[in-house]
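#struct-pred

JT: dropping the chains for the assembly here, can someone run the whole complex?
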Amino acid sequence: MRIAVIGAGAVGALIARELTRYEADVLLFEREADVGWGVTKANSAIVHGGFHEAPDTVRARFCAPGNAMYEGLCRELDVPFRRVGAYVLAFGEEELAVLRELQAQGEENGVPGLEIHSREEVLAREPHVNPEVRAGLWSPTVGITEPWTVAIAAVENAVANGLKLHLAEEVTGIEVRAGRVQAVVTGKGRYPVDAVVNAAGLFADRIAEMAGLKEPVLFPRRGEYILLDKAASGLVRSVLFPAPTEKSKGILVLPTVDGGVLLGPTAEDLPRGAREAVETTPEGLRRVVEGARRLVPGVDLSQAIKTFAGLRPESPQEDFVVGPTVVKGFYQAAAMRSPGLTAAPAIAKWLACEVMASELSLSRRGSFNPIRKGIPRVAELSEAEWEELIRKDPRYGRIVCFCNRVTEGEIVEAIRRGARSLDGVKFRTRAGFGRCQGGFCTDRILQILARELGVEPEEVPLRDPSSPLVMGKVRP
Amino acid sequence: MRVRKIDVLVVGGGAAGIAAAAAAAREGADALLIERNDRLGGVLEQCIHPGFGLHRYREELTGPEFAHRLLGEFDSSGAEAVTGCTVLEVNPQGPSVVAASPKGLLKFRPKALIWATGARERPFGALRIPGARPAGIYTAGLAQRLVNIHGLLPGRKAIVLGSGDIGLIMARRLHLEGVEVVAVLELRPFPGGLMRNVVQCLEDFGIPLLLRHTVAEVHGKDRLQGVTVVEVDEEGRPLPGTERYVEVDTLVLSVGLIPENRLIEGFVPLDPLNRGPVVNARLQTEVPWLFAAGNNVAVFDLVDSVAALGARAGTFAARYARGELPEGRAVPLVRGENVLHLVPHRLVPGVPTPVYIRVPHPLPRARVSIGGVVTRNHVGVRPTEMIEVKLSGEALEELAGLPEVRVEVSPA
Ligand SMILES: Cc1cc2nc3c(=O)[nH]c(=O)nc-3n(C[C@H](O)[C@H](O)[C@H](O)COP(=O)(O)OP(=O)(O)OC[C@H]3O[C@@H](n4cnc5c(N)ncnc54)[C@H](O)[C@@H]3O)c2cc1C
Ligand SMILES: Cc1cc2nc3c(=O)[nH]c(=O)nc-3n(C[C@H](O)[C@H](O)[C@H](O)COP(=O)(O)OP(=O)(O)OC[C@H]3O[C@@H](n4cnc5c(N)ncnc54)[C@H](O)[C@@H]3O)c2cc1C
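RK: done, full complex below.
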């Protein structure tokens, strides 16, 4: 039995991991040079409660159950996760009515603990909220995580359980004969397979087309963000939503797991072809500021350290397309717009362990180990633990990224685990993610990468060979 | 964790810290300097251009040469240095300092602490310039390290945003290394660096300086492909219709330095305009055992001033450690007209000091007044050139009689 999963985002990574519980050869194909660089890299990082989703949707079916799985998942995979709770804030009576509808909807979806809090309760918990707030819908189960780490950790764990990871290998064709999947074709070869999972994010429609399917139809919906430094960390404790609109959950103000504050996203529909339009725009950033200040007037833009944008794989139905298809052996985990990150563990479990295990008659392996240990983070260790680590490897005593307190030891370990670029190191260790945005550590990390990989600094890219950091040596 | 007691601990081994530790040792203190890099010298190490030391050594030196001289003074002072060691925490109780090094975590209990951590560069993200996030966007200091320390070229065709000294010097450096430098852009109607640098770094090499221009957008997904350059109005807002696309693979940013005070800002009062601690003429902050010197107090133009401040901080910190620094009466200096940066914030009777002033915008003719007691006329004062007013013993005595000393720069 051989199964190919296409796409190493949070969704494909978690599905691939579930599949390694079974007696099967599991291959994971990813066109990017590293794991988690698609939609999973740029989003709000919220583990949603599930009250935003209309009850008859696939989103609703998997959102709250996915949320409930996050604690255990993140414990197994050593991924940061904090249940910080969320408020949907109402300004005026009309929006208060919306909160009541959301509460009812949430209850129908099985979201626990929803309560409407008075203005005073909201302000007591979140003193920086706009004092004109009328009330807030409190959802205690909402959490925050680090999305790319979900993908990286799931892939590391799956590889330890036998997964074969094919990075920088784009799937270009799927062979279907007599209504059944035969093989996956990539830029590097042809792989006969018994089953394929389409978890190709923004490009899942193209993969579906390769298998002769018309669903899903996708277009990108852009979301722009502004990230504030850790200095802003006192601004909010929980995730703050405005009352939602038709198109999105609105522009939010929320804490990040490493202590920053995130503002955004916008929701702008782009032409179908614009799948790489991750640039920020003046208009978008203006809206982010306006939307964020409506919730928290004291947002201080001098604390901004970064702006970025992500693309939601949106479909006209605005819903996930998951499960088996008319093509035997071809499974979808597609159109994963928000709350796809939240739903991912529940979808993975259902698709792999219920649908595929039974349709493909997969049998369990005895030796699956669900535990993955993360790279030690000295910033999170006690002094004694850190001392111990330095004793074993002095490189854990050498700070490379001052803003986020990341050591050479962590960077070397990230490279050992597969980082091949500055972003590869950054997403695995947070080095260069802080207040100075790499101004201090970029050249240091570049040197470490070149040394550890035994390559010239010119060969070390920001992401992949098309994004070199330096372009030659100074004349001798 | 080992705890080490020491008279004077200096954090940061740039010009300020080296001078401070040496002076403290000369004053008889047991002095230790901690630096996170493997070498001492701070930014001097990467500044291989001449222009250093005209005041201190009456000679024009390069940055590394200046550092070498200063280190000579350090070596003969008896002070000790630990490199490759990063200070992580300053606990105001104690006081105590925690640092990490390959040898383990280190804890120090100094009697006096000198903060000399310099300044960091404002990052690209802080500018909120629209566009994707390709490779090829560097702060000037990082570009300078790549070229001067690692011997690597950041790109082939560059544009520089910001005409501060670092930007001007990097424009020349890149040009000399064979990189095509298309232009230096400056948002304000006047250059951000020293006039001599505008001439020696740009004019001499035919690199255009475009005042009232900025980058409106960056283009390229993987590596930078180009930038949209736009003219701006008096308020710095883009003028519609003036956009033009410039093909470059490198954008170098020289958009400001931020005094590095992260580890102490929680417990020591900072001057919001200097963005550094409030200090008296002894370079003592509002927390008596904490002294500060160098670019973390305010961003200075010249290393000579930085080293002088460091030495002064070292001397007084050593006296404090010995218990010989009585809490003197201090006379506050207050900002009058046209004063952006101001160091120090308090005069101490009997402690002669220069007063450093930076104006917020240029004035063709100006009269500088320190409490009406010392006045000086200047032709052409600019934000890019700090004004240094030395106070004689006599003037100081007279100023010491005032309830407060108003510092102002009025048009003349
Ligand atoms: C602005 C924004 C905000 C969001 N906020 C949230 C939130 O707060 N909470 C939440 O739960 N969800 C949120 N989402 C949704 C969530 O981010 C996505 O549902 C989730 O990340 C999708 O993961 P994925 O693995 O399906 O997609 P991806 O991460 O895009 O992974 C798909 C992978 O497939 C690869 N690929 C594509 N084509 C090929 C090919 N031909 N061959 C090989 N590989 C290929 C891609 O390179 C990519 O790495 C948000 C999304 C956006 C854009
Ligand atoms: C590009 C450029 C060109 C210049 N040109 C001239 C010129 O032509 N003439 C002139 O006179 N001046 C010039 N200057 C100015 C002069 O070099 C500086 O003002 C001076 O060197 C600053 O010294 P400093 O000690 O304050 O800071 P720095 O040199 O920045 O030293 C601070 C030190 O503290 C260390 N540090 C910081 N935090 C920690 C921590 N937590 N733990 C341990 N160590 C830490 C840093 O690693 C650094 O080594 C120039 C500056 C630059 C950047």
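JT: nice. The mean pLDDT of chain B is 95. Residues B 11-17, 34-37, 42-44, 47, 51-52, 86-87, 116-118, 141, 144, 165-166, 169, 260, 294-295, 300, 302-304, 306 surround flavin-adenine dinucleotide (ligand 2) (CB under 6 Å).
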